[in-house]
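Design request, tokens follow.
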């Protein structure tokens, strides 16, 4: 299995990579990282640089060979599943759900209320709704926001919006954070590094699913 970190987890939100690798180690998952990991091409595709994206896809496909690709990023998941051909791709939320169900990760549940943000790429686009929720509910009580699943609000970061229209991205993030605060929870979980980056604020804890498990799962590191 290749752990494809993605640009954001690899360069900006490195704590997501660290949490992911810790969980894979605890579960005994055999994996490796590409020595020269490159962008999956998602941003190029979403912003119209199709020729450059296709060249990137070709180069990456040669590196992937016939291995299963594990991804942290929802955008990478959508791109590798839909824009590449013949890849076996799994999102970390799906793998964690499997590892908890088969007992490879021993999780302790506690009386903690948290809420969850469905990212556009993982949720609305790829319809991965249940796996992250199952993981969360193995640890805490999930309190849903007003807009969830296919009706979730965008965080404002995707599709080049954060780079081209930062004010709009900030406004969208503020709207989503307001919904999260309305649940009464102090922790907002997402399964997308882009979303974590754009939703981060001083009023509540915004944390990736992997970081949430490491921080609150009380896992036995000798398992």
């Amino acid at each position: 299995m290749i752990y494809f970190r993605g640009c954001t987890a690899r360069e900006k939100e490195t704590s997501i990579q660290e949490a992911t690798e810790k969980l894979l180690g605890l579960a005994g998952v055999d994996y490796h990282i590409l020595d020269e990991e490159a962008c999956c091409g998602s941003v190029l595709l979403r912003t119209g640089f199709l020729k450059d994206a296709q060249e990137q896809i070709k180069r990456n496909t040669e590196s992937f060979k016939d291995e299963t690709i594990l991804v942290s990023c929802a955008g990478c998941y959508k791109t590798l599943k839909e824009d590449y051909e013949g890849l076996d791709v799994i999102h970390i939320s799906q793998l964690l759900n499997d590892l908890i169900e088969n007992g490879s990760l021993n999780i302790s549940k506690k009386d903690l209320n948290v809420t969850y943000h469905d990212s556009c790429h993982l949720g609305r686009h790829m319809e991965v709704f249940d796996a992250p929720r199952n993981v969360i509910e193995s640890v805490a009580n999930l309190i849903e926001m007003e807009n969830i699943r296919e009706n979730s609000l965008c965080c404002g970061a995707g599709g080049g919006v954060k780079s081209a229209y930062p004010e709009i991205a900030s406004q969208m993030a503020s709207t989503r954070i307001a919904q999260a605060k309305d649940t009464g929870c102090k922790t907002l979980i997402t399964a997308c590094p882009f979303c974590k980056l754009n939703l981060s604020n001083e009023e509540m804890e915004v944390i990736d699913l992997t970081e949430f498990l490491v921080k609150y799962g009380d896992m036995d590191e000798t398992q």
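Comment from the thread starter after seeing the answer: thanks! The first strand starts at residue 2 and ends at 4.
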